[in-house]
TrEMBL record:
Gene3D superfamilies: Nitrogenase molybdenum iron protein domain. This is Vitamin B12 ABC transporter, B12-binding component BtuF. Belongs to the bacterial solute-binding protein 8 family. Keywords: Signal, Transport. It is found in: Cell envelope. GO terms for biological process: iron coordination entity transport. PROSITE patterns: FE_B12_PBP, PROKAR_LIPOPROTEIN. It comes from Nocardioides simplex (Arthrobacter simplex). InterPro entries: ABC_transptr_periplasmic_BD, Bact_iron-sidero_bind.
Length: 315
């Protein structure tokens, strides 16, 4: 029996709680065997995910089912397409695209149809910690389940590098990771003094992307972003609490299944406190794409976020 020996490791930022160790196997296989078997010289990969669960892959994989958009995002960055997806955003032309050969995973959030996953025959399934933990037993009857929990844009960069390790696309993943990191650094070098806020929801049920979220941490790099996490990185907030800070610019996400849903700012227009906010009075409430801002989480999505932020702050 071949005994793997440690060779290298890729570790995500501590907040993401996802470590990847790569173990090299000794020996090899004949050319005849190569036609019928996976490459026996490939390095087994042992992972510990955001929940502390450990899983082992025989080597790099290319059949990945995505229960979360950061998975689709990262695969798109390295030129790969998931075999299955959950979020409709995956079929957007900026990601896998409308013609991509992918199976849709049906079911509610955290209650996805495992049969859809199984029919896609993935080598690995990637989901979101804190949301899809309860699927582990059912999913792992078909493929390992890796749960991630990105808490900052740096975690998103680290996850992209991890996808590179998992899929054998390290060089491209590193290139994309460096490019995005350099872009954030350039934006941060001319950091705006304006106070910003990324918020979402509906009247009576509003939330904030705190600094312990990918979007919030990104905004903190390029502007004044005084929104700490507290007990929840996606913190609930009342209009009165927003008024205490009185941000100069608000990026608003209206959650709705309808593309022509009423903008969040319009739904809040009748609130007298909202009407007195500086951002409201100066017409600096910017309605943004909720799917990209709320579920994207990866470097491609955060690049789209930064496009909007930089354009707004330069005005």
């Amino acid at each position: 029996m071949r005994k793997p020996t440690p060779t290298r490791a890729a570790v995500l930022a501590p907040a993401a709680l996802l470590a990847v160790s790569l173990l090299a196997a000794c020996g090899g296989t004949s050319e005849a065997d190569e036609a019928d078997k996976p490459d026996a010289s490939a390095e087994p990969i042992t992972l510990t995910d955001a929940t502390g669960a450990e899983l082992t892959l025989d080597g790099p994989v290319d059949r990945i089912a995505c229960l979360t958009m950061i998975c689709v995002d990262a695969l798109t960055e390295v030129g790969l397409t998931p075999v299955a997806y959950r979020e409709a955003l995956a079929r957007d032309e900026r990601y896998a695209g409308p013609d991509a050969d992918m199976r849709e995973i049906t079911g509610g959030f955290g209650e996805e149809n495992v049969e859809d996953i199984a029919l896609a025959t993935p080598d690995l399934v990637i989901g979101l910690a804190g949301a899809q933990d309860g699927l582990r037993a059912a999913v792992e009857a078909h493929a390992p389940l890796l749960l991630v929990d990105p808490r900052s844009w740096r975690d998103s960069v680290a996850f992209l590098r991890t996808i590179g390790e998992l899929t054998g696309t390290e060089e491209l993943a590193d290139e994309k990771a460096r490019a995005f990191t350099d872009r954030v650094a350039a934006a941060a070098s001319s950091r705006s003094e304006l106070t910003t806020l990324s918020m979402y929801g509906e009247p009576g049920s509003l939330g904030v992307d705190s600094v312990e979220t990918p979007v919030g941490s990104l905004l903190a790099e390029v502007s004044d972003y005084p929104w700490p996490a507290g007990d929840d990185p996606f913190a609930s907030v009342a209009v009165e609490q927003i008024a205490e800070v009185d941000p100069d610019v608000i990026f608003a996400q209206a959650f709705s299944a309808s593309a022509d849903a009423e903008p969040l700012s319009d739904r809040l227009a009748s609130d007298p406190v909202w009407a007195r906010l500086s951002a409201t009075r100066q017409d600096r409430v910017v309605e943004v794409e909720a799917p990209v801002w709320a579920t994207g989480r990866g470097t491609r999505s955060l690049g789209l976020v930064l496009d909007t932020v930089e354009k707004t702050l330069r005005k």
